[in-house]
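## retry 2 of 3
previous attempt timed out at serialization; input unchanged, resubmitting
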Amino acid sequence: MVKIMNKILIIDDQKPIRNALREILEYEKYVVDEASEGRMALKMIKNYPYDLIFCDIKMPQIDGIELLKKVTELKFLNPIIMISGHGDIETAVQTLKLGAYDYIEKPLDLNRVLTSVKNAFELLKNKVEIINNPSEIKNADGIILPGVGAFGNAIKNLQELRLIEPIKEAVIEKKVPLLGICLGMQILTEKSQEGKLNGLGWISGEAKKFKADQDIKVPHMGWNYVEVNKNSKLSNGLSHDSKFYFVHSYYVNVKNNEESAMKTNYSLEFDSAIEKDNIFGVQFHPEKSHKYGMQLLKNFSDV
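## retry succeeded, writing output
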């Protein structure tokens, strides 16, 4: 059985590395703590049984090798992954002999969005596959349409991969549930102020850009509350104080209010979730929204 890791400690004296790892791990649903040096890390490890530790090899005062030995003396049994630079490979191999589980090299480079959604659903014991082959869509019981980047590029990519018609056949004709996330929600609409290509047109409305002023910053980034439509299939287990994590510069207002599943206010009110029969979309990132996001993903998996 694979253990689902809940809380991870990052030990590195370089803040950019800690930030990069934190972003990747939080995208993949983990709770993250940080330590900038070894003595601080030892105190934290004594007080909490972390499920996994990332530890840099080269650090001042207590380096990664010494810290690994001290942590081992504490009878810490969970995996420790060492972080090495290009010149540290021999040392990294040495850490494996000392009990480290593995090592990774700098610079860090991981695919965040697709992996995060996959991991979030696997936590719910759903089988998840990342596909870009049109023939594989016909076997799907549900479809996740994530999105990063620009509206026009997303549509163009779907066209070039010849995915639009298979997705349309599955969703419109066979009524397979589909969830669009962030940009993936926006392309379910008719069009966007970003780019000239039309959207899929399954939801009435368009994506418009926030207007930055003294009161708001663009993009809209961070936690925000949502007003939940209790008639929505996505609403089970969500309360009036449910909040989600947003990162977006464009918003959607649907023309037909019956297609609105949730609303959020950020200088103006917009539809943060949409729903039409078996078609769903969320503007926020459920995979980064802790218990609220996990509940929403569970609700979608139960459709």
